[in-house]
TrEMBL record:
It comes from Colletotrichum siamense (Anthracnose fungus). Residues 219-304 form the GLEYA adhesin domain. It holds the Pfam family GLEYA. This is Cell agglutination protein pfl4. It comes from the Eukaryota.
Length: 351
C-alpha cells in the first residue's frame, strides 16, 4: 500500500500531467523552438537539472515517507485509505526568461515537455526530527556582498562589460575588481536580484549605487561558506544570469580565482551551460567556501542562484529525516574557525 505522502505525490503529478502545459504560453516559452535566447539546448540543460528535486510534504500525525522516482503516469490504489495531506511544494527558482509561467510549479511542469526529461521527485515528510548538525549561533548568516559601479564612459565598461563579443571567461577580473573599495557592502541570505529599468540605480538589500548612477556596468561579488545539515551531494545552480554570472567553489573561492577557472560561467547570449556544479560534503562539520561574481553591462540586469540536495542524498535516509538546503554563512569567529573571516574587499587578490 502506498503511504499517504506517496499518494499525495502521485495525485499531484496526475494533476500536472492533465494540464496540457506543453500547449500553453508557459510550455512554449520553456520548450518551444521559436526562441533563441536562451537557446533550446540551454533551456533543456536548465530543465534537466531543475526537475531532479525534492518535494516537501508538511507533517501530519504519524507521518510516513516513501522514497521513489515516479513517472508522470502512475496508477493508484483507489481502495486505499484516504487521508488529506497538503500538496507538496516544488523547490527551486524559476528563471527569468520563463515569464509566461505563473509560478515555479508551472515551470517544473513545462520542463517535462522536453523529450527525455522526466521528474525525479523524492517526497520528504517535514519534520518531527531535527537536522543532524547546525552552525554555531555566533556564525554570521548570509553571504557577504560588495557592490562596485564602473564608470559608464570608461574603457572598462565599454570594452568589457558592454561588449557583447567578449566572452566572460576572458574577463580581466583583476583589472575590474582588484583594489577597488566597494560603493556598498552587506549580507544576503539568498543571492538573487532582478531589475528591468537600466536607467535606475541598483538597490540590492538596501545597498544602492551612488547618486546619478544606473544599473549599467554594475558588479556584485558574493562570498561566504556553505554548510549542510547532512553529509552527501548537493547541486549549486545558477538559475538566471543577465549579463554574466561566475561561481567558484572550494579553496579557489578563497584564493587563485579568475575568469578562466570558475566552476560555473553563465553569460547571456552564449551557450554557456552547464548552469550547475555538484559539491560534496564529507561531514556535517564542513564549511565549503564559495564566491559569486555578477556583472551587468547594459539593459536590465538579473541573477539568481541556489544550492539544493542531490536526489541521491535521500535514498538511504530513515523515515522522517529532514533534508534541508545548505545554509550560507559569511564567517564564524574563533582562532581555529572552519569558516574564518574574509579580508577587506579591496585587499583581495584576484587571479
Amino acid at each position: 500500500m502506498k503511504s499517504p505522502a506517496s499518494l499525495s505525490i502521485f495525485l499531484f503529478l496526475s494533476r500536472v500531467a492533465s494540464a496540457a502545459i506543453c500547449n500553453n504560453n508557459c510550455g512554449r516559452q520553456v520548450a518551444g523552438t521559436g526562441r533563441n535566447d536562451p537557446s533550446l539546448a540551454s533551456r533543456s540543460s536548465l530543465c534537466a537539472a531543475f526537475v531532479s528535486i525534492y518535494a516537501t510534504v508538511p507533517a501530519i500525525p504519524q507521518p510516513t515517507v516513501t522514497l521513489s522516482v515516479p513517472s508522470l503516469v502512475q496508477k493508484r490504489n483507489v481502495h486505499g485509505p484516504r487521508q488529506e495531506t497538503p500538496a507538496p511544494t516544488v523547490l527551486g527558482t524559476k528563471p527569468a526568461y520563463a515569464s509566461s509561467c505563473p509560478d515555479v510549479a508551472a515551470y517544473w511542469s513545462a520542463c517535462q515537455c522536453f523529450d527525455g526529461i522526466k521528474p525525479t521527485t523524492i517526497p520528504v515528510t517535514a519534520p518531527t526530527g531535527v537536522a543532524s548538525s547546525t552552525a554555531s549561533a555566533s556564525c554570521t548568516p548570509g553571504a557577504e556582498f560588495a557592490l562596485h559601479v564602473i564608470e559608464e564612459r570608461s574603457t572598462l565598461c565599454r570594452n568589457t562589460l558592454q561588449n557583447a563579443d567578449v566572452r566572460a571567461n576572458t574577463y580581466d577580473l583583476k583589472n575590474l575588481v582588484q583594489g577597488r573599495v566597494p560603493v556598498g557592502i552587506g549580507h544576503a541570505e539568498v543571492p538573487r536580484y532582478s531589475q528591468n529599468d537600466e536607467n535606475q540605480l541598483i538597490n540590492y538589500r538596501g545597498v544602492q549605487g551612488p547618486a546619478g548612477s544606473t544599473i549599467k556596468c554594475n558588479i556584485l561579488v558574493h562570498r561566504g561558506y556553505l554548510k549542510a545539515s547532512l553529509s552527501g551531494s548537493y547541486e549549486f545552480i545558477v538559475g538566471e544570469a543577465d549579463d554574466v554570472v561566475m561561481v567558484w567553489l572550494g579553496d579557489k573561492a578563497k584564493s587563485g580565482f579568475n575568469a578562466n577557472n570558475a566552476d560555473v560561467t553563465v553569460q547571456k547570449g552564449f551557450r554557456s551551460y552547464p548552469y550547475s556544479e555538484f559539491i560534496y560534503f564529507e561531514t556535517v562539520e564542513e564549511y565549503i567556501p564559495f564566491r559569486i561574481f555578477w556583472s551587468n553591462g547594459r539593459g536590465g540586469g538579473a541573477f539568481s542562484s541556489g544550492v539544493y540536495p542531490d536526489y541521491t542524498l535521500g535514498l538511504d535516509l530513515p523515515e522522517g529525516t529532514v533534508i534541508e538546503d545548505p545554509k550560507l554563512y559569511s564567517s564564524c569567529p574563533g582562532d581555529a574557525s572552519p569558516a574564518p573571516a574574509w579580508p577587506a574587499w579591496q585587499d583581495e587578490v584576484w587571479g
